[in-house]
Amino acid sequence: MVPRQPPNIARPTTAGVSLNRALSKLGLCSRTQAEVLIAEGRVRVGGKVVRNAAMRVDLNRDRIIVDDRRVVAEAKVYLMINKPRGLVTTRDDPEGRGTVYDCLTGLDLPFVSPVGRLDKASEGLLLMTNDTRFAQRLLDPVSHVAKVYHVQIGAVPDEAMRARLRAGVTVDGELLTAQSIEILRSGTRTAWLEVVLDEGRNRHIRRLLGGHDIEVLRLVRVAIGALQLGDLAKGKARHLTADELALFAA
User: Fold this and answer.
1) What is the pLDDT of residues 189-228, one digit of tens each?
2) pLDDT digits (tens, 9 = 90+) for 93-106
3) Residues in CB range of 132: below 8 A, 6 or more apart
4) CB within 8 Å of 88: residues ≥ 6 apart
5) Which positions are annotated as active-site residues?
6) The 3-state secondary structure of the chain, one letter per residue
C-alpha cells in the first residue's frame, strides 16, 4: 500500500502561484525582495528550504516560513497619497532617488504596492495597496476606470489644436487618444487642460501632447474613477474610507 503524501511539504506543483509572488500577495515584501530571501535560503515551505522562486505553492494549504516565522496574510490596506513631483514610483531606486515610499514614513503598514504609476515629473493621486485583486481590477483595461489629469501646457490652444488633440496621434506605432480633453483656463502663453483617460499607456499624456509639439509644464492626476484627490497635502498619505472603497465596488 502506497503511503499517503503528508500535507504541506515542498513539492512541485502546477497549482497556485509562484513562491515569490505568494510572499508578495501575503504582504511580506515585493517579488524582487522575495527572490533574494529565497535565494539566501531563508524561506521554507512545508518544513523544507526552497531556493526556487518559481516553485508553485497553494496559499490555502502550504505553510510558508521566513526566518523561522510563519507568513500569514496581512489585513487589507488601501491608501491614497498625493505624490510630489520628483519621486519615482518604485520601492527601491538604483540611482538613489526619492520614491513614493518616502510618503509612508512613520506609518505602521504591511508591504503595499502602487496601483499603476506616475512618472517622476508627474504629481497627484496615487493608490497603494496589498490587495492584488483590487489593484488588478483597477488596472485591467476592460474595467475602463477613468483617470482625470490637470495638465499645464506651454501653449494657448485654439480650435484647430483642440481638434488635433481630440483626433489623437500615432507615436512609435501606437495610436494615443484621450476620452476627453477640455480647456480649464488659458493665459497669454500657457493653459490648463483637463485630460481624461480610460487606459494607461506608458507616459500616455506626455507622448500624446508631445506628438503635437505641445510642451507639458505640469501634470497632476486629480481623480481615479469617482475618487478625488481633494485637499490631501502633497507628500502625505491616508487610508481610504469605507465610502471611498465602495466607489470601486464591482
Assistant:
1) 999 999 999 887 889 999 999 999 999 999 999 999 999 9
2) 888 899 999 999 98
3) 24, 25, 113
4) 97, 98, 99, 100, 120
5) 119
6) CCCCCCCCCCCCCCCCEEHHHHHHHCCCCCHHHHHHHHHCCCEEECCEECCCCCCEECCCCCCEEECCEECCCCCCCEEEEEECCCCECCCCCCCCCCEHHHHHCCCCCCCCEECCCCCCCCEEEEEEECCHHHHHHHHCHHHCCCEEEEEEECCCCCHHHHHHHHHCEEECCEEECCCEEEEEEECCCCEEEEEEECCCCCCHHHHHHHCCCCCEEEEEEEEECCEECCCCCCCCEEECCHHHHHCCCC
Verdict on whether the full-model pTM lies above 0.85: no
